[in-house]
């Protein structure tokens, strides 16, 4: 239960009377960030939230909808008026100079004291052109920040995988695969079809355009020496551990999509190494680390850019094998009611056995479903759906079959410098995270927030799972019995 605190923390004091300019505020991380700022740093002066027009909705409408998410329930029940501190700035990272109105530029330059740049297109399968906007937006927001008269700190949200070709990732800058301006020139000068053809040569060993452009964006931060600036590199961001409530989640990215697909019985396998570390981090811990970094660099006033890896604690890691084992147990506790078939989910280490499992458990199954749909006169969708799913799993496999060793000295030092009150309010201590309890809350969160199933439906879902368990194994036994009969019949024909 969240409680109001009487004592102010150093971090809350730092944010008092500050004006924050935030990009990506409507995203998963952004929502938790705004909620935390409004709740624990309630003396913040204003939050300017960049929002673009999308799907026929104005930025203002979209920002109002952000506050309909359950992660704002506590704020709305206890201090709804504080939401007025959030002001919409109409802008789009895909447009030159963020598509900002000149009057908004003037206001931002005059008033902003803290910048959080978290907006990014996070898809792994986007074209280089789309992904290049991540670089251009970072360049343009840095140019804007240089003209902010009262800027105290700037933080850029990158990813732990921005240097994926190094197994050991230091909290330092690495050479980008290409200079930012060169990339932007290439993208601007080539027509789309040519750019698509040369993309594999440009990427080389890089696994996707997302991490490629994150690396190039980081290199832009390196040259800043006029205001305090830092990069936070989170690992895979999953549901909240504690705040605004345990298990809060609003997307199906990566492992969440895998866990949900497996939980409803549609996904049967994924490709990973059992011993590879899954660098997962709860979203509220990322937010707490991010705000603490801003406090640190803003009060120290250092003009040398600092990098903070935030991808778990060296003594409290979870592997993809442990993650899978945990899920299998959790399905008996928090199984969704919209169960499609019995949950049988295996991790495949070997590429060939993974492909065989996807063929028999997904594609073949998809053909059966589509055949039934076809006979019922309905639109077939299963085979196409599985093909799309396999593409996504292949993109994830590049990361789930490897392990990285992330340095974490800067983040540990920051933790050691924080006061006791701040350690309680802005907890990001991954060493103490109880993975079993966390994944359990995440499973219930997935059920509740993503699949919109209340807790009362758990007993019914468990009954359904037991019935499907019997049906599943009955079909397998029947299948092998028929195979045996067929073999003995064939044997009889030839002997
Ligand atoms: N999720 C992870 O596992 C993970 C891990 C490491 C780092 N990160 C980083 O954390 C940050 C936040 O990610 P997230 O997980 O919160 O993803 P998300 O839910 O997809 O949020 C991305 C945000 O960026 C905004 N955005 C994208 N393109 C934009 C544009 N052209 N103009 C304006 N805003 C735009 C989105 O707004 P719209 O609603 O308008 O699209 C959204 O608010 C990103 O920088 C990401 O790279 C994420």
Report on this structure.
With 495 residues, the chain is of the alpha/beta class. The chain has a domain at 10-244 and 279-314 and 404-431: NAD(P)-binding Rossmann-like Domain (Rossmann fold). Helix content is 51%, strand content 11%. The chain has helices spanning 10-15, 28-40, 59-66, 73-79, 102-111, 128-146, 180-189, 192-203, 209-222, 254-263, 283-300, 320-330, 351-375, 382-400, 409-417, 420-425, 435-450, 458-494, and strands at residues 19-23, 46-51, 86-90, 114-117, 153-157, 168-169, 229-234, 236-238, 269-271, 280-282, 306-310, 346-348, 405-406. The strands form four sheets. Strands 3-2-1-4-5-7-11 form a seven-stranded parallel beta sheet, sandwiched between helices. α2 (28-40) packs across α11 and α6 (128-146) crosses α7. Bound molecules: NADP nicotinamide-adenine-dinucleotide phosphate.
Mean pLDDT: 95
Listed once per kind, the bound small molecules are: NADP nicotinamide-adenine-dinucleotide phosphate
Would you identify the CATH architecture of one domain?
3-Layer(aba) Sandwich
CATH superfamily of one domain: NAD(P)-binding Rossmann-like Domain
Ends: how far apart?
74 Å
CATH class bucket of one domain: Alpha Beta
Instruction: Sum up the overall morphology in one term.
Output: globular
The percent range for helix content is 40-55%
Low-pLDDT runs: none
Q: What characterizes the major β-sheet?
A: 7 strands, parallel
Category from helices, strands and their pairing = alpha/beta
* CATH-derived topology of one domain: Rossmann fold
Q: How much of the polypeptide forms β-strand, as a percent range? A: 5-15%
Tally of DSSP β-strands? 13
Query: How many helices does DSSP assign?
Result: 18
Strand order of the largest sheet: 3-2-1-4-5-7-11
Keywords: Lipid biosynthesis, Lipid metabolism, Membrane, NADP, Oxidoreductase, Transmembrane, Transmembrane helix
GO molecular function, one term: alcohol-forming very long-chain fatty acyl-CoA reductase activity
EC number: 1.2.1.84
Subcellular location: Membrane
């Amino acid at each position: 239960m969240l409680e109001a605190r009487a004592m102010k923390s150093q971090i809350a004091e730092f944010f008092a009377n500050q004006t924050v300019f935030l990009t990506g505020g409507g995203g998963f991380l952004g929502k938790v960030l705004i909620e935390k700022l409004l709740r624990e740093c309630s003396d913040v002066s204003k939050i300017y939230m960049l929002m673009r027009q999308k799907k026929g909705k104005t930025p203002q409408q979209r920002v109002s909808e952000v506050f309909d998410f359950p992660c704002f329930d506590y704020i709305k029940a206890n201090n709804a008026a504080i939401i007025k501190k959030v002001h919409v700035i109409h802008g789009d990272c895909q447009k030159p100079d963020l598509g900002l109105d000149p009057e908004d530029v003037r206001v931002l330059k005059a008033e902003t004291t803290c910048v959080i740049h978290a907006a990014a297109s996070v898809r792994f399968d986007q074209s280089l052109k789309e992904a290049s906007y991540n670089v251009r937006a970072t360049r343009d927001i840095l140019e804007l920040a240089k003209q902010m008269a009262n800027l105290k700190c700037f933080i850029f949200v990158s990813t732990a995988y921005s240097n994926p070709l190094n197994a050991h990732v230091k909290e330092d800058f690495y050479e980008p695969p290409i200079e930012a301006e060169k990339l932007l020139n290439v993208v601007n000068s080539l027509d789309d079809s040519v750019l698509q053809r040369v993309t594999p040569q440009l990427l080389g060993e890089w696994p996707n355009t997302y991490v490629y452009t994150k690396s190039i964006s980081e290199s832009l931060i390196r040259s800043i020496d006029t205001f305090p600036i830092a990069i936070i590199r989170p690992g895979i961001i999953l549901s909240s551990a504690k705040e605004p409530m345990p298990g809060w989640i609003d997307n199906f990215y990566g492992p969440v999509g895998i866990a949900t697909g497996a939980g409803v019985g549609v996904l049967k396998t994924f490709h990973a190494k059992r011993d590879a570390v899954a660098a997962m981090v709860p979203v509220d811990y990322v937010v707490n680390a991010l705000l603490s970094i801003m406090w640190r660099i803003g009060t120290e006033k250092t003009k040398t850019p600092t990098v903070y890896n935030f991808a778990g604690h060296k003594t409290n890691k979870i592997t993809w094998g442990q993650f899978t084992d945990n899920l299998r147990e959790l399905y008996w506790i928090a199984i969704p009611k919209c169960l499609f078939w019995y949950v049988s989910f295996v991790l495949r280490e070997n590429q060939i056995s993974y492909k065989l499992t996807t063929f028999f458990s997904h594609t073949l199954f998809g053909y059966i479903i589509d055949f039934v749909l076809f006979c019922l006169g309905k639109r077939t969708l299963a085979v196409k759906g599985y093909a799309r799913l396999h593409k996504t799993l292949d993109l994830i496999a590049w990361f789930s079959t490897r392990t990285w060793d992330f340095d974490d000295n800067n983040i540990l030092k920051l933790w050691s410098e924080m006061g006791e009150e701040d350690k309680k309010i802005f907890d990001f201590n991954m060493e103490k995270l109880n993975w079993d309890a966390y994944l359990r809350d995440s499973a219930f969160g997935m059920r509740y927030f993503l699949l919109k199933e209340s807790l009362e439906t758990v007993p019914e879902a468990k009954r359904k799972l037991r019935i499907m368990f019997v049906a599943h194994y009955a079909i397998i036994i029947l299948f092998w019995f028929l195979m045996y009969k067929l073999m003995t019949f064939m044997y009889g024909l030839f002997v």
